[in-house]
Design goal:
Elements (H helix, E strand, L loop, with lengths): L2 H10 L1 H5 L6 E5 L4 H18 L3 E5 L5 H7 L7 E5 L2 H8 L10 E11 L1 E5 L7 H10 L5 E4 L5 H13 L4 E4 L3 H9 L5 E2 L3 H9 L3 E6 L25 E9 L4 H15 L2 H9 L3 E2 L4 H22 L6
Parallel strand pairs: 1-2, 1-3, 6-7, 6-8
Antiparallel strand pairs: 3-10, 4-10, 4-11, 5-9
Helix pairs in contact: 3-10, 5-12, 7-12
Length: 313
C-alpha cells in the first residue's frame, strides 16, 4: 500500500474501520452493581470472542460522568458507553460536558425495564384513580421515595404528578431499602421502584401494586395493569439500557458492534436470563435508538421543566 494512499485511508478513518478491532475495547458504565453494570459485563463477555479482542468494563460514578468520559474519547470504537437513559436525562437536569444527541453515535437499545407504582398495603388508595383523588384531596401531603434527583424513580413520580395534576413530594434516600422501610411504616405514601426491587415486597403482602409504568402490561409483573390503563392515559416511565460510541465513529464499526450485541441479545438463554433480572431485551438498530433518544428528550424535557427539577442548584 502506497504511503499516500495509506495516509488518505488513515485520515478518513477507512483503514481503522477495516482493521477494527486490533486492540482491547473498554466499556464505560456506572458503579458496580445494578442494571447498568450487570448488562455491561454480560455484553462485554459476549462480544469479546467474536471481535477477537478483550472487552473490559470500566466502572465510573453514576449520573453524567460515564457520558462525559465517552463523549471525549477518540471516535475509533475502542471506548463504548453502556448505560441507561440517564445519559440523555442527566443533561436535562444539570450542567453536563456533552450533548446527548450531538456527541454520541447510537449503537443499539439493549433492554428495558419498567418501574411499578406501589403503596402501603393499608393505604386507602386501592387503585390509580383513588390515589389521584387522595393526592388532590391532600395537595403536597403525599410523599414518595426516590434514590436521587433525576433518578428513574424520581422522574416517574414527577411525571405522574404532572400528568395527574397533583402535587406529590419526592424524598431522596441514599439506599432504596430505607425508602421501602418508611413506606411500610407509612412515613411515605407511594413509591415507583423497579420491578426487581419492588416485586418481593408486593408478593410478601407488605406493599400493594397499583400499576406498572410501562405503556403495555409486562410479563415481569403478571396480572398488574399499567398506570396508563388504570386512570392516567399516556403515562409511561421506563428505564432504557443502550450502547453508544463517540460521535463520528465510522458506520462500519457501529454496524459491527450492533451486529454482535443484537446477536447476543436475541439468544433465547440470554432473553430468559435477563428476564429473571427484570429486563426485557430489545436489540434495536442504531437508527431506532437515535429516534428513541430524540423522542424521549422531547417528552422528558417538558416534564422536567414543568416540575422545576434541577440537580445542580
Amino acid at each position: 500500500m502506497g504511503c499516500a494512499v495509506l495516509a488518505l485511508l488513515l485520515a478518513t478513518g477507512t483503514y481503522a474501520a477495516e482493521t477494527y478491532p486490533n486492540q482491547p475495547i473498554r466499556v464505560v458504565t456506572s458503579e458496580v452493581g445494578g442494571g447498568n453494570d450487570l448488562l455491561a459485563r454480560q455484553i462485554a463477555q459476549a462480544i469479546s470472542g467474536p471481535l477477537g479482542q478483550p472487552v473490559m468494563v470500566e466502572n465510573r460514578p453514576g449520573g453524567i460522568t460515564p457520558g462525559e468520559v465517552v463523549s471525549k474519547a477518540p471516535p475509533d470504537g475502542y471506548t463504548l458507553l453502556l448505560y441507561n437513559n440517564t445519559v440523555w436525562i442527566g443533561p436535562l437536569i444539570q450542567t453536563a460536558g456533552y450533548d446527548a444527541v450531538r456527541d454520541f453515535s447510537p449503537i443499539a437499545e439493549m433492554a428495558r425495564t419498567p418501574n411499578m407504582l406501589v403503596v402501603n398495603s393499608a393505604s386507602p388508595a386501592g387503585s390509580v384513580v383513588e390515589l389521584i383523588a387522595l393526592a388532590k384531596a391532600k395537595p403536597g401531603e403525599l410523599r414518595y421515595g426516590a434514590s436521587g434527583t433525576g433518578a428513574g424513580n424520581h422522574l416517574a413520580g414527577a411525571l405522574f404528578g404532572a400528568m395527574a395534576g397533583v402535587k406529590i413530594v419526592p424524598v431522596n434516600y441514599k439506599g432504596i431499602g430505607g425508602a421501602f422501610k418508611d413506606l411500610m411504616a407509612d412515613e411515605l405514601q407511594l413509591m415507583f421502584p423497579t420491578t426487581v426491587s419492588g416485586a418481593p415486597h408486593v408478593k410478601s403482602g407488605k406493599l400493594r401494586a397499583l400499576g406498572v409504568t410501562s405503556a403495555e402490561p409486562t410479563a415481569l409483573l403478571p396480572g398488574v395493569p399499567t398506570v396508563a390503563s388504570s386512570g392516567l392515559p399516556g403515562y409511561e416511565a421506563i428505564t432504557i439500557f443502550s450502547a453508544f460510541a463517540p460521535a463520528t465513529t465510522p458506520r462500519t464499526i457501529i454496524g459491527r458492534l450492533n451486529e454482535e450485541i443484537v446477536r447476543f441479545l436475541n439468544r433465547t438463554d440470554v432473553k430468559e436470563r435477563l428476564f429473571r433480572s427484570s429486563m426485557e431485551t430489545v436489540g434495536s438498530s442504531p437508527e431506532q435508538l437515535a429516534a428513541t433518544v430524540k423522542s424521549e428528550i422531547a417528552r422528558m424535557s417538558k416534564v422536567i421543566k414543568d416540575a422545576g427539577i434541577r440537580a445542580d442548584e
